[in-house]
Amino acid sequence: MFEQVKLDYATNGLEPYIDQTTIETHHGKHHATYTKNFNDLVEKAGLTGKSAEEILGSLDSVSDATLRQGLKNQGGGYYNHNLYFEMFSPNPAKAPTGKFLAAINEKFGSLDACKDEISALAAAQFGSGWAWLSTDKSGKLYVSKTLNQDNPISEGTGQIPLIALDVWEHAYYLKYKNLRPDYIKAFWEILDWKKVEARYESLI
User: Fold this and answer.
1) Which domains are delineated in the chain?
2) Tell me: the pLDDT tens digits for 169-178?
C-alpha cells in the first residue's frame, strides 16, 4: 500500500514562502486523495507489490485505456507530490556539493543557471503541470516540463526526477494568486539542496 510522504516540518514551517493553509490543503487533502485513488486503482489493476516507478514506467502493459489513464493521473499525483514535499526544509542547504554540483556545472554552467532554466519552464507551462530536474543512471542531468500529473517516468524518457516544481494553481494560488513567478522564486528559498544531492547520489 502506497503512503504519502510524512512531512518532516510543521505545516507552518515553510512560511513565509508557502503558507500553512496551502500546506494543509495541498498535502492534507489533494495529495491524500491522489494517494487513496492510486491505491484503489493499483488493486483494481492487479499491480499490488510493484513500486510506483515500476507502474508508471510500464503503463503500456495495462490494456484497459481508462484504467491506464487513471493510473497515470493518480499515480503521477502520488509520486510527484511525494517528491515535491520531501525536498523542502525550513532551514535548507542553499547549494549542493561534490559530484552533484559538478554535474550541474557541467550541464548548465552554474547553479543559478540551472535554477533559471527550471524556473523558465515552470513559468511557461500553460495550465497545470510541473517542471523537472532529472537524472539518468549515468548521472547526466536534464530539465523538462510536463502537463497535468505526467512526469519523466510516465513519459518513458528513462530519466528519474530529482526536483519536482509543482505549478498547479492549488500549489500557490491561496498565497500568490495569479503571480506564479513569485511562487517559483519562493520555491527555491525552501528547496533543500542537500536532500536533492542525497537523492542524486542514491540513483547513480
Assistant:
1) 20-86 (1.10.287.990), 98-203 (3.55.40.20)
2) 999 999 999 9
